[in-house]
Model the fold of this input.
Amino acid sequence: MESVQKARRMTRQRRKILEVLRGTDTHPTADWIFEQVRRVMPKISLGTVYRNLRVLKESGEILELNYGSTYSRFDGNTDNHYHFVCLSCGKIGDVMLPLSDQITRQAAGAVDGRVEFHRLEFYGTCGDCTIKQ
Ligand code: ZN
Ligand code: MN
Done:
C-alpha cells in the first residue's frame, strides 16, 4: 500500500509542476517552479522538483532550454516555436513568428542525412533593459 500512496503523491506532484509550468510564459528555472509548487505542497523538496522535471522532459511534456546560461529554463509549450534571449538580464520570451520551412529545406540540401526540424533563438536586449541603458 505504501508504494501505491507514494506513486499517487508523485503523480500529484508531477501534475502540479506541469500546471505551474503551463501557467507561465516566463520559461522559469527549477527554483522558481519549486517556490510556486511549495505554496500548495509545503513538503515537496527541490530534488523532487528536479526529478519530476527530468521525467516530464523525457516523456516529451515539457522542454528544457539551455542557452549557455547557468541554470536550465523550462517551457511548458512543446510546439516548435522561436525564442528571444536577453543578453543583459537573461529573460527568455516567445517569438510569435511563423516557422520557416525555407530554412529547413535549405538545411536539408546542406547536410548528409534527413532534416526533421529546426530550433531557433534570437539574442539581443529586451525592452526593459533597453530603457535602463
Ligand atoms: Zn533584459
Ligand atoms: Mn517558449
Summary: The radius of gyration is 18 Å.
